Amino acid sequence: MFTTPEQFASANKATVDSLLSLANTALASAERIAALNLNTARSLMEDSVSGAKALMGAKDVQEALSIQASLAQPNVEKAVAYSRSVYEISAQTQEELSKMVEGQFGEFQKTVAGLLDKAAKSAPAGSDVAVAAVKSAIAAANSAFDNMNKAAKQVAEIAEANVAAATNATVKAVGSAAAAKKSK
Asked: Which Pfam families match (predicted)?
């Protein structure tokens, strides 16, 4: 497959570089999730303390219920924002990883095409049919990969739209419920 040590070394370097890129992408995503978790935990703790202080300062049961109802909406909005942030980080990471895989697949296609051309030139007479069959199989595999890639992107877009719609519906529903409790 490799005719010179330089080609072998180059292929190994490319593989190591690809693995490092994948590792760096995964670590960057983990860092973002960890930072989001820490910030969310800090905010949750601060909100809990201020909510507890507000409830302790209530003069009667009616005021305590009113305070408790007013705390629900921001908590739901923060939970939805957290979920949305996790989803966005995951989607961005998936997109970056997909681009890397596409790039690697493109390089693989070029390598296979080059090897196939070399093999076709040195193949014995009458092997044109076998070479054409292999080229056809490779073209079919490439087409299948492209179709899968397009389908995956469409599914991701649909999922993103559904997450956004569900998020908005949840926030509106909680807002309506909180408004209904306040008007009682």
From this structure: Phasin_2
